[in-house]
Specification:
Layout: E1 6-9, E2 18-27, E3 33-42, E4 56-59, E5 66-69, E6 87-88, E7 95-98, E8 100-109, E9 115-125, E10 131-133, E11 138-140, E12 144-145, E13 151-153, E14 159-165, E15 180-181, E16 185-195, E17 200-209, E18 216-217, E19 224-226, E20 232-233, E21 237-238, E22 243-245, E23 249-250, E24 253-254, H1 256-259, E25 262-271, E26 277-287, E27 302-304, E28 311-315, E29 323-329, E30 334-341, E31 345-349, E32 356-364, E33 367-375
Parallel strand pairs: 4-9, 11-17, 19-26
Antiparallel strand pairs: 1-2, 2-3, 5-7, 6-8, 8-9, 10-13, 12-15, 14-16, 16-17, 18-21, 20-24, 22-25, 23-24, 25-26, 27-28, 28-31, 29-30, 29-32, 32-33
């Protein structure tokens, strides 16, 4: 009713992000004025941007299980509020990365709490081969060889070891040739170590098995003597230059009185130039010779087969009286004994006995005879 007022305002053409207060003023013809205000809020809905580098692949540092990796770290940008600093939950440029693949993730956040992320991988390849060191060449007289495991090292991912043998097919396990029975002669052992990245190293050495010397000692003749008999020269042992041992043995002589009554075993031992040792033995009976028939053993007794594998057969021939059997190992241990046997034919089971030399004593009516038996 008083005329048309004039309305002015200070509203900008465009509003920045954030809150802007706008004031409106109305003036009438009489210069009366009235004002009002309003707030204009512009929300930052634009996501910032960030760009990661491409995936990175490097070899591990020499002698190490990792590598120092540097790259240009990404920086996020925001078109409204300017650049922001990107944050990473990973190791970051210049850090030491382990063998394998590590994911690096960078995240940028602007003032309006808008976020954006990018990721890339850093792969450190295990390019360093493991090492395997073989023992020195082995020479042995025993075909069963132990203590020939290799030594290995791998700084990164661990390793497995396998072996191969030239000319020998048996072994103790997948990783170690120890416990293998080698053939006489020279065998080459090849060890191969492989790590988790399939890097390999090899080494080899030889195992030489020297044969045992062939050793023999002749039988006593006679093989039964009296306690009062003088010392006499022991049977010949071959090869020469071996050594005798046993009860009543002194140098190369046997003294019945020093040995004492009973059955005694004389062992002849020889060591060759390869330090390989073998032995043979023979038995002698020392009797008191008081009231004893000094006949030169029993006649007609047959022991077969010899060598034997499982059974020793004893045929007493014309002997009709009861007999006693005693089977003794080379070290004097009684492994079988039977008394008052009346059968003219007897089978003695030796299947569970160890291979080697044994002595079978057959005795009856103050007479006896000792047979040397070989278990194969």
């Amino acid at each position: 009713n008083c005329g048309t007022p004039t309305i002015t305002n200070n509203a900008p053409v465009s509003f920045p992000i954030g809150n802007t207060t706008v004031t409106w003023t109305s003036t009438d013809a009489s210069s009366n004025t009235i004002t009002c205000t309003q707030v204009v809020t512009v929300v930052d809905a634009e996501v910032p941007t960030i760009s990661c580098p491409a995936n990175i692949t490097v070899n591990n540092d020499a002698g190490m299980c990792d590598a120092v990796v540097t790259y240009t770290a990404p920086v996020g940008t925001d078109n409204c509020t300017g650049a922001t600093t990107a944050m990473t939950a990973g190791l970051g440029s210049g850090a030491t990365f382990p063998v394998g693949t590590t994911t690096e993730t960078y995240t940028v956040t602007d003032a309006a709490n808008n976020t954006f992320s990018c990721s890339f991988t850093v792969t450190v390849v295990d390019a360093e081969a493991p090492t395997v060191t073989c023992p020195t060449n082995v020479a042995s007289c025993d075909p069963l060889v132990n203590g020939i495991a290799p030594t290995t090292s791998d700084n990164c991912t661990g390793e497995t070891v396998a072996y191969t043998l030239t000319g020998v097919t048996t072994g103790s396990g997948a990783n170690d040739a120890s416990g293998t029975t080698f053939n006489v002669g020279v065998t080459t052992v090849l060890y191969t170590v492989t790590d988790a990245s399939n890097n390999q190293d090899t080494c080899s050495f030889t195992v030489t098995i020297n044969p045992l010397p062939t050793v023999a000692i002749a039988a006593f003749n006679p093989d039964t003597v009296c306690l009062t008999d003088p010392a006499f020269v022991l049977p010949v042992g071959t090869p020469a230059a071996g050594t005798y041992s046993g009860n009543g043995v002194s140098g190369s002589n046997f003294d019945p009185n020093a040995a004492g009554a009973g059955t005694h075993y004389v062992v002849y031992t020889f060591t060759d130039t390869n330090s390989c040792t073998n032995m043979d033995s023979t038995a002698i009976v020392v009797q008191s010779c008081v009231g004893i028939n000094e006949a030169n053993g029993l006649s007609g007794v047959n022991v077969f087969p010899n060598p034997a594998n499982n059974v020793i057969n004893v045929n007493l021939g014309a002997i009709t009286t009861a007999v006693n059997f005693t089977l003794t190992s080379i070290d004097g241990k009684v492994v079988y004994k039977a008394n008052n046997v009346n059968d003219t034919k007897t089978a003695i089971d030796i299947s569970n006995n160890a291979k080697g030399v044994y002595f079978l004593k057959v005795e009856t009516n103050n007479q006896q005879q000792i047979f040397k038996v070989i278990k194969q």
